[in-house]
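step 3/5: co-fold with glycinamide ribonucleotide
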Amino acid sequence: MPEARLVVLVSGSGTNLQALIDACADPAYGARIAAVGADREDIEGLARAERAGIPTFVRQVSDFETREGWDSAVTTVVERFEPDIVVSAGFMKLLSQDFLDRFLTLNTHPALCPSFPGMHGPRDALEHGVKVTGATLFVVDAGVDTGPIVAQVPVAVEEDDDVASLHERIKTAERAMLVDAVGRIAREGVSVDGRKVRIGTSAG
Ligand SMILES: Nc1nc2c(c(=O)[nH]1)N[C@@H](CN(C=O)c1ccc(C(=O)N[C@@H](CCC(=O)O)C(=O)O)cc1)CN2
Ligand SMILES: NCC(=O)N[C@@H]1O[C@H](COP(=O)([O-])[O-])[C@@H](O)[C@H]1O
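step 4/5: write tokens
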């Protein structure tokens, strides 16, 4: 079976991207990263891609007259790389319905959806006083962190956690979940039926 083609979208440090780069080095993983895209310049995520010899692109909202113009430019450049799966890994821009209609898009979020959606999952979980939080991989839909859930991993909140320590612990679990689920989807396929996501031979 041919390797699945991934386009990975990032906005920051790119440790999830790095985990995927490392996994893709093994041909048995079943996927390769065709390109890495970002909504801003000068981020470590892009540097990680460049060090790995992966093509990169940047489309900044501020370079476009309208948000629709940016949406369309992102769709066009991603299309060029013919992805089987788009992985939003720390990408801090909402993706348009048109983009989502064209590409199977997964997003990793640092909380147990449907709890604590948005850009501050670890902070919101800590402020709420939950004892267990985690990470969620989901199929992106037009809402914010509302899409059908592919995988989740729980992470304990410790008494002395601050936002940084909690987020770091979540990210360790999140990377393993992401690599495992994306690899299984690449090798075995996935089906989405309403809110039910199935990976594996029964998919499709
Ligand atoms: N349509 C969707 N797009 C994306 C989703 C999603 O669930 N639906 N998830 C993300 C990531 N995300 C949290 O998981 C998230 C990203 C961005 C925002 C947001 O409000 N962004 C603002 C800009 C903020 C900035 O640039 O600093 C915006 O897009 O204008 C909320 C949640 C990936 N995309
Ligand atoms: N709502 C989106 C969101 O909060 N995304 C989170 O940003 C971090 C990116 O880390 P990374 O750049 O090191 O992969 C990850 O924890 C990801 O879930």
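step 5/5: annotate
The CA atoms of residues 112 and 134 lie 5 Å apart.
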